[in-house]
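SAMPLE LOG
Freezer: B-3
Tube label: C17
Construct: single chain, 144 aa
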Amino acid sequence: MSRRTSRPRGPAAARITPASPCPCGLSAAYGECCGRFHSGSAAAPTCEALMRSRYAAFVVRDAAYLLRTWHPGTRPPGVDFDPAPRWTGLDILDATEGSAFHSTGTVTFRAHYTDDGRPDSLHEKSRFVRHEGAWVYTTAVFVD
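STRUCTURE (predicted):
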């Protein structure tokens, strides 16, 4: 997700503990799933895992992780979180390449949220490349 904004920081991030369900939608607990990527104790092995962990980073408002996993050629100087949306779910719709055997990949997804109580979604195709051995986000195309 490439959303950047200059709005002031809003309410606190979602309260997620290592034992909480992971916001990315997989059945593992946050600490065993995306939390280990956020903490730096593991690296996302595929583009899809990186996409899921970046979505979870938006949920928990982990700007440092988002910047760390953004390609230096397209990375903004900072991430300001829009206070309005409350992220509610992630659907991975398609993934191409992006495994240990590839150097590029894409993930098409729909990220669901509510804004002032109204449901909405962000439909995006994100591009990823390997940079210094790790998967990083480069750019995105909004699908609708």
